[in-house]
């Protein structure tokens, strides 16, 4: 009887190790598929993301790669969710690391983290904010609803932090809740019930300023204008902080 129990335990442990190894290999292959997809996009644009092209780059058969992603759209959805989540994790960490009592420092930390993230992975920035993947159909609710919600809240948090200092500049703005998309308001109003419409408009202004300058840099439009895009970004960020009636750090 002891021998039977011992043999069963050994067999169970062996099966567990085999399953664990199989799961690890699958996870590694999945990660490689996503990495190759972004590399193809970086060199060939969004048109280059096809399962057959990825399989060819990895030395796999097309049929084998379908065992990981049933369709190209499934892969693109996963990529968008991964990239979006990476972005929001990066900026949220920067925000939380900066002193809570220093809104200027928090805004600067968030903005610099956003730019650093974009420069470290420009193909990811282009995937979620630039080049649409031809023919891609996102699932109902969007490709990355949770991450998109967090980004909206994070951007609004920038305005919420600045509002006590900047309110006198924008309080008389002629904005009402009817000026905004209901989807946006559903995301931000529950998190910031005290903010007026003018503050939400300010959040969009801040976002437009940061996103616009970073987009110019990612797409290479600043290369012929400045030899020091880092200095330009930091000066523009400092001016943005001053426009919010705060003193920039550094």
UniProtKB/TrEMBL annotation:
Gene3D superfamilies: Tetracycline Repressor, domain 2. Residues 1-10 have a biased composition (Basic and acidic residues). Residues 27-87 form the HTH tetR-type domain. SUPFAM superfamilies: Homeodomain-like, Tetracyclin repressor-like, C-terminal domain. InterPro entries: Homeodomain-like_sf, HTH-type_TetR-like_transc_reg, HTH_TetR, MT1864/Rv1816-like_C, Tet_transcr_reg_TetR-rel_C_sf. The keyword Protease does not apply. Keywords: DNA-binding, Transcription, Transcription regulation. Residues 1-21 are annotated as: Disordered. Pfam families: TetR_C_33 (PF13305), TetR_N (PF00440). Residues 50-69 bind DNA. One of its GO terms (molecular function) is DNA-binding transcription factor activity. This is TetR-family transcriptional regulator. It comes from Streptomyces avermitilis (strain ATCC 31267 / DSM 46492 / JCM 5070 / NBRC 14893 / NCIMB 12804 / NRRL 8165 / MA-4680).
């Amino acid at each position: 009887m002891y021998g039977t129990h011992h043999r069963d335990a050994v067999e169970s442990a062996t099966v567990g190790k085999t399953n664990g190894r199989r799961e690890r290999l699958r996870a590694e292959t999945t990660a490689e598929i996503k990495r190759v997809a972004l590399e193809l996009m970086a060199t060939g644009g969004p048109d280059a993301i096809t399962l057959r092209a990825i399989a060819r780059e990895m030395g796999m058969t097309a049929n084998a790669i379908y065992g990981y992603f049933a369709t190209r759209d499934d892969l693109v959805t996963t990529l968008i969710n991964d990239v979006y989540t990476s972005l929001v994790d990066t900026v949220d960490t920067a925000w939380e690391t900066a002193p809570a009592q220093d809104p200027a420092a928090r805004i600067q930390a968030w903005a610099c983290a956003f730019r650093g993230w974009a420069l470290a992975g420009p193909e990811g920035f282009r995937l979620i904010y630039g080049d649409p993947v031809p023919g891609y159909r996102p699932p109902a609710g969007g490709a990355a609803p949770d991450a998109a919600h967090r980004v909206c809240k994070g951007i609004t948090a920038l305005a919420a932090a600045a509002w006590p200092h900047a309110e006198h500049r924008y309080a008389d703005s002629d904005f009402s809740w009817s000026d905004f998309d209901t989807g946006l308001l559903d995301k931000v109003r529950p998190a910031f019930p005290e903010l007026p419409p003018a503050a939400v408009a300010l959040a969009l202004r801040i976002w437009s300023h940061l996103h616009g300058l970073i987009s110019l840099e990612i797409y290479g439009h600043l290369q012929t204008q400045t030899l020091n895009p880092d200095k330009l970004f930091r000066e523009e960020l400092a001016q943005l902080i001053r426009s919010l009636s705060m003193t920039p750090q550094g």
